[in-house]
Amino acid sequence: MKILIAEDDPLYSKMLESMLVKWGYEVITCSDGFRAWEILTSENAPKFVILDWMMPGMEGIEVCRKVRENIKDTYVYILMLTAKAEVKDIIEGMESGADDYLTKPFNANELKVRLMAGRRILEMQEELISSREALRIMATRDALTGLLNHVAIVDALGRRLVQTTREKTPVGIVMADLDYFKNINDTFGHLVGDAVLRETAKRLQLLARPYDDIGRYGGEEFLVVLPGCNLEDTVNYAKRLRECIQENAVRTNGANIPLTISIGATASVDGKATDVDTIIHTADNALYRAKNNGRNRVEFTTHEES
């Protein structure tokens, strides 16, 4: 673990550094509050700081307040180190946002225990963050394909429509549905059908830009949101997707399974407000026309035609 020692007394600084290195910590040192604040707001900043109260430039207690007011994306554990030992000083230090308090001169074993306690708290926080991220992924991702699930892709579309209205830029919408997917399940079984859906998701991701939104809308139907794409751009993307699906059979369980896909495309007019239901309905109209006109094709629909 990386620890910042912010201490202006060279003797205490060197002693702390020696102890922490011996106990297996990676140590960064500085001797004034301004430098401590710079380090704590830099990239890959330490999450643990031993902060002396009395320092030149900016006192430790002010650094502590700035950390609590400004650093929100991660937690910094602060062990305040000072010669002040009165109750009112301890209260002031803790109210400023310090997690723990150690007075000079300190006992090495006591410092070691305080460091262990702080480290456990930071490790518990990391576990909570990991668990929260896992829950977020479970709530927004389709378990089979890894794409955004129905709710998440519709939410993403809603945000893109707000953006396109604000910035007066277009957004393209593609609704794609695998052709005769029920026949694949009936002929080869649902496990093969699942493999086909996963492979389709991979191809969707392969063609997408990093900032495109891709979701499994339901069953074998997929929704792709293309920020900045007008209708011509969106139709061209849809054509590339249709070719990518058709030209590469899915090989699974020793069988080559040919695939085709029907696609409906539409796009918002630059800066013209529209709602999620309307634009999805417009793309659906194009998709239904692609199905009715023989499948394995791209159709597009403008808002005026929907």
Q: Order of helices and strands, N to C?
A: EHEHEHEHEHHEHHEEHEEEHE
CATH topology of the largest domain: Alpha-Beta Plaits
User: Main beta sheet: strand number and arrangement?
Assistant: 5 strands, parallel
Class computed from helices, strands and strand pairing: alpha/beta
The number of strands is 12
**Averaged pLDDT, please?**
89
Architecture (CATH level 2) name of the largest domain: 2-Layer Sandwich
Query: What best-fitting shape do the alpha-carbon axes yield?
Result: elongated
The end-to-end distance, rounded to whole angstroms, is: 59 Å
Helix content: 40-55%
Count of DSSP H/I helices: 10
Unreliably modeled segments: none
Radius of gyration, taken over Cα atoms and rounded to an integer in Å: 29 Å
CATH hierarchy, class of the largest domain: Alpha Beta
- Percent of sequence in beta strands: 15-25%
What strand line-up does the widest sheet have? 2-1-3-4-5
The overall number of domains is 2
Structural write-up:
- By secondary structure, the protein is α/β, with parallel strands linked by helices.
- Helices cover 50% and strands 20% of the residues.
- The chain has two domains: 136 residues, 3-Layer(aba) Sandwich (Rossmann fold); 151 residues, Reverse transcriptase/Diguanylate cyclase domain (Alpha-Beta Plaits, 2-Layer Sandwich).
- The longest helix is centred in the middle third of the chain and has 33 residues.
- The protein starts with a strand and ends in a 6-residue tail after the last strand.
